[in-house]
Amino acid sequence: MVRDQGLLFVLALFFSLAAGLVGCIALMRRMLLAGDVISHLALPGLGLAFTFKVNPVLGGAATLFLGTFLVWQLQRKTDLATEAAIGVIFAAALAVGAAVTPSEDLAESLFGQLQKLSLPGFILGLAAVIFVIFSIFLLKDQLALSIFSTDLAAATGVHIARLDLYFLLLFSLTVLVGVRFMGALLASALIIMPSATARQLTNKLSHFLLLAVIASLLSVAAGFLLNAFVFKFSTAGPTIAILSAVLFSLSLLARAK
Amino acid sequence: MTKRLLSVTNLNVSFGNREIIHDLSFEVQQGDCLAIIGPNGAGKTVLLQALLNLIPYRGEIRWRQDARLGYVPQKVAADRQLPLSAKDLLTAKARYLKLPSNELQYVSGELGLTHELLNTSIGALSGGQFQKVLIGFALLGRPNVLLFDEPTASLDELTEERVYELLQSLQKDKGMTILLVSHDLSVVYRNANMVLCLSGGKTCMGPPKEVLTPAMLEELYASPSHYYQHVHEHGHEPDARIARERQKW
């Protein structure tokens, strides 16, 4: 139990770093809310995995990434904005998911809980978020250029379509890990709140990323401790999410000054 | 090495069924300042985008191997709320292209981009400052060709003047080749040694004095009344008048 909590805490800390960074890019691309929606792309895979008795995470991941790829193709071929493309695929995935779902418990398996964590799950999750953190770090200049102007980025040599796909996949991967291991609420909170908080405090890219990461880490660390020693809820998720909201409110005050 | 820097052969660009550029061929020599003129919708910006390989086209665009292109777009539809400072942008490009660390200083020095300006968020820059940053962005990596799309479209006269002084110094002192899209005929007279006119499938190319005849302008802009009115009202020579007024089409 103590070991489980320890692993969860470590994974949550790393996840908060990844979520903070991905959230910053998503905020600049105006797709911050897409995380909630994109997680539903896992639904058909979960349903099929139940039917065929396969590991649901694998099934969910398969359709999540397939869905992400379709979103990317759709926005490339039609000039639809990312959020519109995600919306279309989301609705379709939800419909297919509902049709193939054999179980009532689907929602629970989709929106995992911040409670149980196996060692392989921990290792996989950790590998995924570390991969996301490094990728964002490596891609941040290209992402900044393409967010500023796709023409200028392309003229500089950035491969825009490929970059879009990379980011969507990183975004989906973060959402997948978050929803599976942190719970849907906490995953969204950590993608959305820290970047929104950091945005109030700076106009500089490096500070923006750094502040988001700090806000994210701070809410996870403090949320875990507060929950463990003070509130003692069954899961630390709500405490962490509320702390992120408190940090955001404080950022508003800081901005007002 | 050949003096020919760019050769375009049978270039065609269409969006859907609409053909924007039809069978265009021309050449640019090193050190040229080529002005691309024509009415709205003639495909001037599209031509630059094709030359930069930003859009699909048919035909052949061949740059000399050592050509390094810098691009200053007409406008950037960037979200002004982005948490990006001018320096963030320039640094992002410098790092992406793995330019030496003093490159940013060099460009800032050339353009007089102050420390304060560099640390301003792009949303808070004035039109002139923003343009300067875009030019700085283009100059990073020391291009030998600059593609300039309406460089002064959103600037006041004073700033406009500075941009053209800069343009001139880049061309004359640094030997840069410049491709310039402009509505502004006085700029064309002052800066360009070659003019390429685009207009509904008709094209012409040559030195300004040869190409920019009243007859050609009439053909290019279909309704030249504006131009003539001005000339008659004030009784100036057309060329001088244009140079003074920077008559815009």
What do you see in this structure?
With 257 residues, chain A is mostly helical. Chain A has helices spanning 2-28, 34-38, 43-51, 56-78, 82-100, 106-110, 119-148, 150-156, 160-182, 184-201, 205-231, 237-256. Chain A has 12 helices and no strands. The N and C termini of chain A lie far apart (45 Å). The mean pLDDT of chain A is 86. Chain B is of the alpha/beta class and 249 residues long. Helix content of chain B is 39%, strand content 24%. In chain B, the strands form 2 sheets. Chain B has a 6-stranded mixed sheet with strand order 5-6-7-3-8-9, sandwiched between helices. A 3-stranded antiparallel sheet of chain B has the order 2-1-4, covered by helices on one side. In chain B, helix 2 (86-96) packs parallel to helix 5 (127-139) and helix 7 (185-191) packs across helix 11 (238-245). The model of chain B is unreliable at 224-249 (pLDDT under 50). Chains A and B meet through helix 7, helix 8 and helix 11 of A and helix 2 of B.
Topology:
The complex is a heterodimer of chains A (257) and B (249).
Chain A: H1 2-28, H2 34-38, H3 43-51, H4 56-78, H5 82-100, H6 106-110, H7 119-148, H8 150-156, H9 160-182, H10 184-201, H11 205-231, H12 237-256
Chain B: E1 4-15, E2 18-29, E3 33-37, H1 44-51, E4 58-63, E5 69-72, H2 86-96, H3 103-111, H4 115-118, H5 127-139, E6 145-149, H6 157-172, E7 177-181, H7 185-191, E8 194-199, E9 202-206, H8 208-211, H9 214-221, H10 225-234, H11 238-245
